[in-house]
């Protein structure tokens, strides 16, 4: 075939046509900003990205395309904020989700508000996201420090663990956890016998604090710390043969898995999702197995699935083009729609952006009680959705008052 | 002008052109980050490159500048130029105190004292109520320059950052090529000799230290306004290490080296973020390669090859 100028132009035009048509059909872009290389990579990380992708695949959206991208925030708020900014400015991202790390999540909340995008944090613990730092662009999905304190402190005190001693990491997060938990213990008729503050970061030897806790005679030793501090406390308590119950205020399934049941047995902790909780959660985990055969999801990873699924349902209902235009309108639609999925069952979203569902107090099983892989928890108490989280009026969310 | 040699004048012209053209090609927020770190590295280079003082706690002044500027802009509602000036002052003031203690010792002892003081500043920032602990100061407003020009758009902010960077860069260059700078270099080469010539070397070192800290505070304050956030990352000793790497990578004791080093280091952090867990591995390989292949830094080697000073 001879290539004349006209045929060339014709082919070129034909080639560009479907491309422009494709660009016109609105496509939704979801950014999973998570920790891929640091301390939270197990509880969030790649499996959180896979969960988001699974929500997209299962939803099989009609009329609009969905793309999932991910990046590592390196646990630095400025890195996270600049990635989020770049995603909004250049990447055409419509939804930012996950963001395990409270500092990073607060920074990204500011960016999402400024750029008017939807923001669904799943991994961060800070209750400020629906408190003083709340924005109309945010829905805080999975859990927060208030929920942890209320369930581990309040439910535990009611279940008989009514005297406590705290080992507190000496910074704002540790102080807040101790203060909140103390409030719930006392409200439930319990008593705090004492506490000790440990330097943060950098404490690796907790022996003297643990002995002090042992000597206090309290029934429960509350661990108001996180990450490697909690892990070290649990390990060393085992080494010292401490018989009191340990109350972990921020412990995840993956931490228990890493430490093993022998060391963790009897530990009390709170989560809003456990893979072996009911038929729904088991079905979800079974499906996720196809993507990560050797792992089970944490509440953060399940939350990422749940959040993305609800977002896609909303986008489908209101139209992709509409959803792309305005983050606040999309979030308001999401709040108006009741949520339902395999992980958390039926739920609602409050006006201040707090997703409401029950929280569960678990005890880690003895090695002899564990029947199969990842069979780690037994349920001690359930706090219903309407009591699990901080009441709307106490949050001081600025845009609710206005 | 400013005592530039011919090759330096050419390099400066290239850099100036790049600063003007770049925001139309690349992402302005990224470029602002590069410029802030470039200024920080220039400030650090003034000490290590020209006075021979290795400060291992420079993040303290950078971070404190950021906190001061951020707090002034957010809590007191100061306009950006005043907030940044306040950040500069905070860096300089902290530098005066720390420098006064540290310059009494030399070599490794000096480095260790600055490291210890830097860590003290870090723990202070972790506990002090105004810094917001591990969450940092969030949502710092960019405000209106002189109370008039809105800095909301990235381009307007970029212009301000570019001007601040050029001011800092030319100031460092001017200092290095002034009689004062000659004495600093003399101290670097042979301190007892400088003393025997009648110079009070401690005073000279202290002044250089304070200037360097104030410029670090300037860079930190600017950065906190650009990103609207001031956090512990900026006061952490990893940041002190990073600025050492930037300066080494670009070329110690060259005026353009730190700028180049900041560009390389920030680009890596930015463009490799997608690579997930591999980021640290890739960074490590690149640093090792640079240290083996370019002993004197990228620009140091280039200058040597071309037999010029940059």
Order of helices and strands of chain B: HHHHHEEHHHHHHHH
Q: With helices defined by DSSP (H or I, 4 residues minimum), what is the helix count of chain B?
A: 13
Strand content of chain B: under 5%
User: Could you tell me how far the N terminus lies from the C terminus of chain B, measured between alpha carbons in angstroms?
Assistant: 15 Å
Biggest sheet, spatial arrangement of strands of chain A: 2-1-3-4
Features:
heterodimer; A: 402 residues; Rossmann fold; 16 helices; 46% helix; globular; B: 310 residues; mainly alpha; 13 helices
Describe this structure in words.
The complex is a heterodimer of chains A (402) and B (310). Chain A has 402 residues and is α/β, with parallel strands linked by helices. Chain A folds into 2 domains: 199 residues, Rossmann fold; 126 residues, Rossmann fold (3-Layer(aba) Sandwich), CATH 3.40.50. The longest helix of chain A has 20 residues. Chain B has a two-stranded antiparallel sheet with strand order 1-2. Chain B is mainly alpha-helical and 310 residues long. Chain B is globular. In chain B, 50% of the residues are buried. The interface between A and B is medium-sized, with 33 and 31 residues.
